[in-house]
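Render this sequence as a predicted structure.
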Amino acid sequence: MKAPSQCLALARGGWVAILVLLPSIFGAVSGQEGAGARSDATADSAGIQPGDLIRVKVWREPDLSDSARVDADGNVTLPRLGLIRVGGVSADSVRRLIVTTYARYLRDPAVDVTVLPRVTILGAVRNPGVRNLDPTMTIADALAMAGGAAPDGKVDQVELRRRGQRVPAKLSLDARLAETPIRSGDHLVVPQRSWLSRNVGIVLGVASVGISLVYLLR
């Protein structure tokens, strides 16, 4: 049997070992969390997607200015460039590619590249469907492209949904799309007002008739 002093020394040694290992253990956990965060960040910055519309404007060169839709394979056809792959690429990267290519034919080309993401507008709107929205538009402009909100639509509570999940975001009607988390593939949903709020007149009419019958039957 070990002496008490030896047991105490072993216990102290065990605690020292645990304290030494704790930083590496927590470091590994934080590393895994960081990897997860980086993965989420990568997923959030998916870049240009199929169905997006790319609008290219070259100053004083109308023949080179064009708008083209990204196909299902992530490709787009542009003047002088032909078929190029843009799927997953940022708008800035596409702009640099276009400027580099057009620099062979033009001197200091001024190129403006705008990506109009593909967004589905649903809910209480007159013409629900898929729209390509200019980033300079407001939420009100986007709803107008879907024919405007229906009479029973709650335009002050527009929802943003992504892959079936609601994304927490305050979408006021005067907010510009570039200032919101809206991106390609998202859904803008205008909720419908409840039956009671949509039929206040009917409810009040029925209540009035009921009150009148009560007085008549007394």
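Summary. The longest strand covers residues 53-58. Residues 119-196 form a domain with the Outer membrane lipoprotein wza fold like fold (CATH 3.10.560.10).
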